[in-house]
Design goal:
Length: 503
């Protein structure tokens, strides 16, 4: 638009001047030595303008010729910058794709040859992240040091280096070192969401519950943390703060700082109930648990509610029976009522509620409570039965086969067992003895003489000398599950044939 405006303006001026000069119609007389030249005024004006244009073009051409080296240098720098930028983009792409070794190689090239400080710092940080992903922590630390040295005079880059280094250290589990990196950002009062998230991670690893509680609230208020995650962090950190401050009595300040919704969270309610019970305010403890149960029917709160002091038993029984009207099939609530009846020594109702709970769900604890109840009432057999059932529910016992034995020991590799020639003599002697025992004794003979041999004596002496022979024999397939062989009671063992000769 500006070009059109100036073109129109100059054209208008030129036409106006031409018309004006034509109206004047004057001449210009020029003396050059003894020569006199007379020309029109229009020609003189046009000559002056043409001379000005020619002079301007010549000067611009001269400047353009003298700036050729500078333009070549700028072109070379732009070419290098474009190449480094493309290599930096390639490294980032490889980093996102998970090709960490290639990414580190390309990004390290950018750090070494780029003349742009920002590119060097960004490439060093990206290469450090790639080295961290490969657990090359020494190379990562060197790259972080390079990035920190190059960003020394640039505040935004220096903050970026601190945040990136803290993130990598937190991944490695070095929370205190990460906090040291983030200390300058905290000192400047930085409220960036990413920095606050890093601080939250560091404080969580260090179990600094006060800071976790404050940061979780702030991030959730700024929609930087989901409601589910924020609620979980607030619940755990606030409960830990109450437990830690019970010794110095400052837990009341923590409790008052919580909102109504936060006080109803299960972990916070449990911690507060314990705190109130520790100072003897049992009614407040019951009220805290009841407010939490009104929001969510949590089994942990019910278990704590069932552990009532004698003075609170009646109150809690009334409350639990009122809840039972809306939840008649809740196994946890029925067990809670049974425990409260046991605490109040209402035996019949306790048995009734515990039996109803078992109908809804098998529970080893309910069986154990019934066993204790029957034992108190003198019903020993029923108590033992309930305790056995509690054990069976709590643990899965292996099935044991009846009339089964382990396989015989493999004695072929035992060094003390009879081998070689001794085994041959023993086999021959047993065969001879088998033939002789068929001969009938003559009348009048007092006894049958059992033949003996050196092998028999050797065998007897070995058995007498080593009573633990079978304990030392190697078992076949040691270390593997043994095959269980059932005994056939209808078949007699074969004692006539001797065992085969070992290999």
């Amino acid at each position: 638009m500006r070009t059109w405006f100036w073109t129109l303006l100059l054209t208008t001026l030129a036409v106006g001047c031409a018309v004006k000069l034509q109206e004047l119609g004057g001449n210009v007389l020029v003396f050059v030595g003894h020569t006199r030249i007379q020309v029109s005024l229009v020609f003189v004006v046009l000559a002056i303008l043409l001379s000005f244009v020619l002079l301007y073009v010549c000067l611009r051409l001269l400047v353009w010729l003298t700036e050729i080296p500078l333009r070549i240098r700028d072109w070379h720098l732009r070419r290098l910058a474009r190449r480094d930028h493309e290599l930096l983009e390639l490294g980032w792409t490889e980093l996102l794709e998970g090709r960490y070794a290639k990414a580190e190689k390309d990004l390290t090239k950018v750090v070494g040859r780029s003349r742009n400080v920002s590119q060097q710092v960004l490439a060093a940080l990206s290469a450090a992240r790639a080295a961290h992903a490969m657990s090359e922590f020494d190379r990562r630390d060197k790259l972080l040091e390079q990035a920190e040295a190059k960003a020394a005079n640039d505040v935004p880059l220096r903050d970026a280096v601190a945040a990136a280094a803290a993130d990598l250290l937190l991944d490695q589990g070095f929370a205190q070192q990460a906090l040291d990196r983030l200390a300058p950002l905290q000192a400047k009062g930085a409220r960036h969401l990413h920095t606050m998230r890093l601080l939250l991670r560091a404080y969580r690893q260090l179990n600094q519950h006060d800071q976790v509680f404050a940061l979780a609230r702030t991030l959730n208020r700024r929609s930087a943390l989901s409601d589910v995650e924020a609620t979980q962090l607030i619940e755990l950190s606030a409960a830990a703060r109450i437990r830690e401050s019970m010794d110095n009595g400052k837990w009341r300040e923590v409790w008052k700082d919580l909102s109504i919704a936060e006080k109803a969270l299960p972990e916070i309610a449990l911690a507060a109930a314990v705190a109130f019970e520790s100072i003897g305010e049992l009614d407040e403890a019951s009220k805290v648990l009841e407010q939490s149960l009104a929001v969510t029917f949590d089994s942990r709160i019910l278990a704590a509610y069932a552990r009532a002091e004698p003075s609170q038993t009646a109150r809690r029984l009334l409350k639990a029976e009122a809840w039972l009207a809306s939840k008649p099939h809740d196994a946890e609530l029925l067990m809670t009522l049974g425990m409260l009846c046991l605490a109040g020594q209402i035996w019949g109702q306790a048995e009734h509620y515990l039996q109803r709970s078992l109908k809804q769900r098998e529970n080893s604890r309910v069986h154990a409570l019934l066993g204790s109840l029957y034992d108190r009432l003198g019903r020993k057999e029923e108590a033992a039965s309930q305790w056995r059932r509690a054990t069976n529910v709590a643990s899965s016992l292996p099935a044991i086969l009846e009339d089964s034995v382990l396989p015989a020991a493999d004695t072929r590799d035992d060094p003390d067992f009879l081998k070689g020639e001794v085994w041959d003599e023993l086999h021959d002697f047993d065969s001879m003895h088998s033939e002789r025992r068929d001969v009938e004794l003559t009348p009048g003979s007092s006894a049958s003489v059992t033949p003996t041999s050196p092998v028999t004596e050797v065998r007897a002496s070995r058995y007498d000398a080593d009573d633990e022979f079978f304990d030392s024999a190697p078992v076949a397939g040691l270390g593997l599950p043994a095959t269980v062989t059932a005994i056939n009671r209808t078949t007699k063992p074969n004692i006539e044939n001797p065992p085969d000769k070992p290999n």
